[in-house]
Write a structure and sequence with these properties.
This protein has 83 residues and is mainly α. The chain has a single domain, classed as 434 Repressor (Amino-terminal Domain). It is built from 5 helices and no strands. The longest helix is centred in the middle third of the chain and has 14 residues.
Length: 83
């Protein structure tokens, strides 16, 4: 497609469904929301076709968890800390 990141809104606009529907399919909440198999298949195939990857930064803002570990080292010139 384009050389820019695609969003859930772009997918929803292209498939003419709501962005909530796209979000439910991507997050695996299709059974509890009772979405049809045809809609699920259309969204999944288009997501795979365009290579959609969720924005991890936006996801961490929403969830409050970044899954990043910070490490403080007293002295990096000390050989003990280099290994």
């Amino acid at each position: 497609m384009k050389n820019q990141k695609i969003s859930i809104v772009d997918i929803a606009n292209h498939l003419k469904v709501s962005k909530s529907t796209v979000s439910f399919v991507i997050n695996g909440k299709t059974k509890e929301k009772r979405l049809s198999d045809e809609v699920i298949q259309r969204i999944n195939s288009y997501v795979e076709e365009v290579g959609y990857k969720p924005n991890s930064f936006a996801k961490s803002l929403r969830s409050g968890k970044s899954h990043i570990i910070g490490l403080l080292v007293e002295d990096i010139s000390n050989p003990f800390f280099l290994i």
